[in-house]
Each structure stands twice: as structure tokens, then as C-alpha cells.
Specification:
- The structure is a homodimer.
- By secondary structure, chain A is α+β, with helices and mostly antiparallel strands.
- Chain A folds into 3 domains: 105 residues, Nucleoside Triphosphate Pyrophosphohydrolase, CATH 3.90.79; 76 residues, no CATH class; 66 residues, Winged helix-like DNA-binding domain superfamily/Winged helix DNA-binding domain (Arc Repressor Mutant, subunit A), CATH 1.10.10.10.
- Chain A is built from 9 helices and 9 strands.
- In chain A, the strands form 2 sheets. In chain A, strands 1, 2, 3, 4, 5 and 6 form a 6-stranded mixed β-sheet that branches. Chain A has a 3-stranded antiparallel β-sheet with strand order 7-9-8.
- The first copy, chain A, is globular, with a radius of gyration of 21 Å.
- Chain A starts with a strand and ends in a 15-residue tail after the last helix.
- At the A-B interface, strand 1, strand 4, strand 5, helix 4 and helix 8 of A face strand 1, strand 4, strand 5, helix 4 and helix 8 of B.
- The structure holds a DNA duplex.
Chain lengths: 300, 300
DNA sequence: CCTTTTATACTCGAAGTGAGTATATCCGGC
DNA sequence: GCCGGATATACTCACTTCGAGTATAAAAGG
């Protein structure tokens, strides 16, 4: 049994939320995600990336999770024999340690995906996108219905509701339909800021994963400072999901999960009535997972 | 920027359900998962694996999804410079095309994880396992409480309910506690059949992923024959989850999802009243994902 | 024909969820 | 000092979902 030889590379989607805006760490003025070789000295992939991020950015990395491994033919390294295998990771950085809005290297998610931010209602750009997608659907003869269903489902058309988790499917549809420059579309007719190679697709993968994850695991707290108000927490979740949430219900949800506790202090920096400060209950909850069982169990 | 050189290998967790028993495709008489080199000629990882599985097993592969990429130091290939990167995949094979219970290569999941099958109630082996885990908890002084919480949570002790999704956590705890031969435990004091290198851990990853997935995506149907009865469907889900389900509620769940339709025929092979046969509604549902939104949305 | 076995259908109460409304406490201006 | 704006916090209600139990239907076999 022979083993294929390949180049191994790590790519990181590092996110933080500052000023109610979700941001991603980039290089080349926002054109690429940070990446580097997988050094042989590392104990594991995870450890390798953690070390490397620490060196490169100076930010301590909280949560870290593997995203996906890509090895498509078009990823072949130019001057080398063999191909490149890219292993991508999602990492979360605390707001405290993260740089401010203006700092270099960090760019807002929605610069690359303006159609994903629904906090101010359905973005206007979606009208133009769905019009172009309809043309693309109409241009197909054989499997037109299938295309139509995919578009309707992903973009919340024809009765379907907008689902914030489907960011990757939306990007992939737009790629297929030739609406992004990465797919060869001229910049004037494309949507959102593009990135080097398939980095924008990897970013979409990271965003989709994080949006799905905040619903069943308490990862938001990896993005929060030590103490925070409930409104701050809600606005952070809203920034990530690209949606506005119902305030009373959000608070009910948070407190029935018993994920946080009052610090005893309050802040009046918010304008109106002072808000109580809370902290995440690290100790108790390291192993917590919402049961979320959708199977009809029987207890015998 | 240099790129690290590495050996690339694909490892597959191929599962089927035959005779109400979940099975995995193995090599070396059940001691290892099938694996092979990542050939340079393939278009992508996915395509590479699909082709390779077809050649090796003769079974057409339905569903295929990437599981995880491993590259720990202990995975280094003996005779080679550099290390091995193992990219693992989860694949589902239809019962029809799958071999019967006796055929070589296929082994039951619960041979490797006897504590994971709760269809006949809590397995007796769990008593011995938790006893040994309690010793392990007690042997720690500093972070004992943390260990205790991890064990209680993963194994459904001290008020916590058994959660079938936590199979990987359970295996990892048992590994840490030295209860499996892969961790150096003598066979007489270990639990479950072991596998080569970290293959059993990869199998646990696949099982956990599949158990979680059946709750929010209709992947079970990838394991069913063209037409099936509701009881058959339920027993397949039960086999995967390692749990018994409440029949009336299972049927209600299935039919409110509108995932299946009657074929018009019935079968009386089941003993009692003849059961209606159903088929999966492929066409309509290729893009379906249960919304499962746990965020308190507001609709403005 | 009656019992056993499996399939299918209906009901009920508890819990969860979406949505709206009411009260509390600060700030700043008059 | 009082009042309106702004934000925080608390409560209520209807509707849906979900776990659990019960009842009826249709076959096979003695």
C-alpha cells in the first residue's frame, strides 16, 4: 500500500465581534485568510495552529474547531509536485483581546457577504441577487424544477423562511450561477467582496458552522468579555446570526439555561436604566450540551 | 512560505443496517477500517473515496460526508519522512446492496462499543465501566470535580439522562481512564473489541456524527431499501440510536415531516396485520433541512 | 371463533415557543 | 423637582410541540 505525497497547509477563519460587528482576521488587506505550512514539529494539527496563531497575531485563541479539509485539483501548488491539502479551522477570539474596528487585518463578515446581514430587514441587494438567480434557473431546461427548489429554499423564497444557517449553500449557488468573481464573473456584475482562491468559500463555511453552533452549544461566550450585560450578549448573537431577536424571549432562553450568573455589579453606560452585569459560569458548564433530542424516546 | 510535505491517506467509516443491526465495513477480520492512499489523479477527496470504495467493495455508495482529519505525531508512517495525514469519511450503504449479517468484512457496531446499545435497557457492562471510571475520578486530587462532571454527563449518571450522541466523549473518557487496550490496558481488564491504531476512535466519531445527524436531516433513508414499512424504518433508527422509540410518536413525527409517501402496496410478512409500504419522496426533499431554530426570532 | 400479534388511529396534559404588554430606573432638559 | 425619553427587567397569554397512554383494525393460527 503506497501513500500519496502531498503538501499540507493550515487555513484559519478567526472571528471576533467588536462594536456589534462580526469580523474575520485577514491578510493581504482583506484579500485572503491567514494560512501557513503544517510544520512537522507540532504535536497535532490543533496544537500547530494554536501556536502559529499566537505567534502571528498576538491574540490568545479561545475556542478552536476543525472546519473542513479541501484537496481539489485546482488547489495544486504551482511549483511543486503533488497537490496541496488545506485543512481549515474555525477559531474564536475575545472582544477584549481583539483589535478595534479600525485595526488592520480585521474585516467585517458582511463586506464579503452583504446579503447575509438581515438585522436591518431583508438587504436590498437580495432583490438583485434573486433576479439573477431566476435567470440562471430559467436557463436550465432539464432539471429546472430542482434548481428552483434549491434557490427558493436557500434564499427563503416562495413561502420558505430565511434560514441564517444556509450561508454556505447560498454562496455555492451564487458560485454555480456565476455571480461571484471567483467563478469568473466580471467585478461589475458580481456581489460582495471576493477573496483569493477559495478563501471566501472557506469563510462561508466558518460562518455557517458558527451560526449553527451557537444554537446548541454555548460558544458565544468565547467572544464575550469577562462581564457583560444581557443586551450586549443579545447584540453579539444578533451580529453572528445576522438577525434581530425577540428581547423578552432571548432573556428567558438565557436564564432557563442557567449559563450565566450576576456579578452583582451594574453599568449605566448604556443610556437608560443601568444594566446588571453577568459572567459566564465556566466551571459548571464545560461539558454542557443542549440535549436537543428530536427523537421520540420511550422510557422503559 | 514553505509548505509542509506529508503523506495523505483516506479512511472510511462505511455503515449499513442489516437485520436491525448497524454494521461497519472493516478489513483484517474486523481489526481495521478500510483505508487507502489519496491518489493524485482524483478530482477531489470525495471523488477519490467514492471511486476507491466502488472498486474495493462493489457496493454503490449513497451518502458520503467528511468526518475529520487527523495528523497526530503518533500517526507518523513508519518508513517515511514526514507524517501521515488521515482524512476520514462517513459513508452510508443501502441494506439491499449491503451484504448479509454473515458476510465477511462487515461487523456490528456494538461489538466494538457494547455499552452503546440501550435497546434492551441499560447494558449490564455499564456498571463495570462506571465503577472503573469512579476509581479514575477518585485517583485525581486537583480537578476531581471536573472529572466527575464529565463522567456523569457523558454516561448519564447522577440525574443526567443518557444521551446517545455522546459516544465519542464516552470513548475518549474511557481512553483517558485507561479502560481500552488502545490506551495500553491489558485485554482482560478492557471493554469492547479494539481496533488497529486509532481506528476505533474514528468509528466512534462516525457513529456519534450519524446519531446526531438523523435528528435533523433525513439520512436514514440512505440506509433503507426502496420500499419499507414504518416499523422497519423505526427499527433502523432504533438500531442507529441504540434506543427504543415510542411508536405512536415516531409515526406522528414521520408523517408531519411529509418525508415519505405510501406506495399503495402492503406486506404481511411481519406476522400480524399487514403493514403499508412507503417510499422516500426523493424529488421533493433533496434540499430539505429541518429548521430547528432554537433562537427566539422576532419578525419585523 | 377466539387469542395472539402487529399495524394504525386518537386523546390528553405538560412543556416549550412566539408575541405582546407592563413596570422599573436611569439621564437630561425645563 | 418633575417629566419625557431611553433602556432594562418582569409578567401574561395563546398556540404548538412533545411525551405518554389508550383504543381500534386486520391478519395468522389453534
Amino acid at each position: 500500500m503506497t501513500i500519496g505525497l502531498a503538501h499540507a497547509e493550515l487555513i484559519a477563519v478567526l472571528s471576533a465581534v467588536t462594536g456589534d460587528e462580526p469580523r474575520v482576521m485577514t491578510v493581504r488587506s482583506g484579500d485572503a485568510l491567514p494560512s501557513g505550512p503544517f510544520e512537522l514539529g507540532h504535536r497535532s494539527l490543533q496544537a500547530g495552529l494554536r501556536e502559529w496563531v499566537g505567534d502571528q497575531t498576538g491574540h490568545p485563541l479561545g475556542y478552536l474547531e476543525q472546519l473542513y479539509t479541501f484537496a481539489d485539483r485546482d488547489r495544486t501548488h504551482e511549483d511543486a509536485e503533488g497537490r496541496t491539502i488545506s485543512i481549515s479551522y474555525l477559531g474564536l477570539v475575545r472582544e477584549q483581546a481583539a483589535p478595534g474596528a479600525g485595526k488592520p487585518g480585521w474585516h467585517g463578515w458582511y463586506e464579503y457577504f452583504p446579503w447575509e446581514d438581515h438585522r436591518g430587514g431583508r438587504p436590498e441587494i437580495l432583490a438583485a441577487i434573486t433576479r439573477r438567480l431566476q435567470d440562471w434557473v430559467a436557463s436550465e431546461t432539464a432539471r429546472r424544477e430542482h434548481r428552483q427548489r434549491r434557490v427558493d429554499f436557500a434564499f427563503g423564497l416562495d413561502g420558505a423562511a430565511w434560514n441564517e444557517d444556509l450561508g454556505l449553500q447560498r454562496y455555492e449557488l451564487m458560485y454555480e450561477a456565476g455571480l461571484v468573481t471567483e467563478a469568473g464573473c466580471p467585478p461589475a456584475k458580481s456581489f460582495g467582496r471576493s477573496m483569493f482562491a477559495d478563501h471566501r468559500r472557506i469563510l462561508a463555511t466558518g460562518i455557517a458552522r458558527l451560526r449553527a453552533k451557537i444554537k446548541y452549544r454555548p460558544v458565544v461566550f468565547e467572544l464575550m468579555p469577562e462581564s457583560f450585560t444581557l443586551s450586549q450578549l443579545q447584540r453579539t448573537v444578533e451580529a453572528l446570526a445576522g438577525l434581530t431577536l425577540h428581547k423578552p424571549n432571548f432573556r428567558r432562553l438565557i436564564d432557563q439555561q442557567e449559563l450565566i450568573e450576576e456579578t452583582g455589579e451594574a453599568t449605566s453606560e448604556t443610556g437608560g436604566r443601568p444594566a446588571k452585569l453577568f459572567r459566564y459560569r465556566h466551571a459548571v458548564l464545560e461539558e454542557r450540551a443542549l440535549s436537543g433530542s428530536k427523537l421520540p424516546l420511550s422510557r422503559n
